[in-house]
Amino acid sequence: MRYDYWLKHTPITMITEERAFYILQLEESATADEIVARYEILKDQYRKIKDETEDLRTRLAYQLKQIELDDVFIYFRRKQRI
Q1: Domain membership of residue 55 as a residue range
Q2: Which residues, by range, are in coiled-coil regions (predicted)?
């Protein structure tokens, strides 16, 4: 399968501000420091769970959660919120 075909036909979940706060489990009034702190806490928790489990599905699920967290971090950086 060609890469450009894959890009055009793969659904991409857009990160919105509401979704970003939902993922971080924070109120929309959170400060930049609270956002960064929560990101780091969740990232560490997800990494620990992923590394400690032997179940492949669980490992993949937490790897996807880590990617989603990174997307949230990038979103807030681009919006100059952090």
Answers
A1: 14-78
A2: 32-59
